[in-house]
Amino acid sequence: MAKTDFFKPNKIYISHALREQLCDLATQDKTHFGLVTVNIGESSFELNEYFDVGCRSGPVLHLYPDFSKLHRTKRYLEMIGKAPMVEFHTHIKSDTELHIKDIEKMKMLRRGYWIIGGNNGLAFYFFYHKPKQNTKNMMTLVTEKIEL
Ligand SMILES: [Zn+2]
Known about the structure:
- The structure is a single chain.
- The mean pLDDT is 90.
- The chain has three helices and nine strands, in the order βαββββαβαβββ.
- By secondary structure, it is α+β, with helices and mostly antiparallel strands.
- 23% of the residues lie in helices and 39% in strands.
- It has one domain (11-147): Cytidine Deaminase, domain 2 (3-Layer(aba) Sandwich), CATH 3.40.140.
- The radius of gyration is 15 Å and the shape is globular.
- The protein has a seven-stranded mixed beta sheet. It has a two-stranded antiparallel sheet with strand order 4-5.
């Protein structure tokens, strides 16, 4: 399967060390945002390594990445042959459920893979748009959550 294909992984593997690292970030008083590199199997994801990217955050803003660092990190990871496909961010003192701002961002991005770290652990989200029934141009956001 080509690395650019978008599909729902049937299984997601995460190492003990990476799980500890991401859970630890989720307990901090500061919102973290970054990229997780992935080895893509036939129908599975093996999560590899976390690369922190700075962000601004707040109750209204929720999360605003440092875009220049995000692009630099993506370029670097592409250069060394890693696939930075999964975005990670933390929810301070709350769980892994999506905030309104998360859903707004998902609608804007149209599709992607996220991990959210919260006080109840880690959740993997897979999201995409599909046409609404009986309409041509209306799209609806579909999100699926996989507990990690
Ligand atoms: Zn969020």
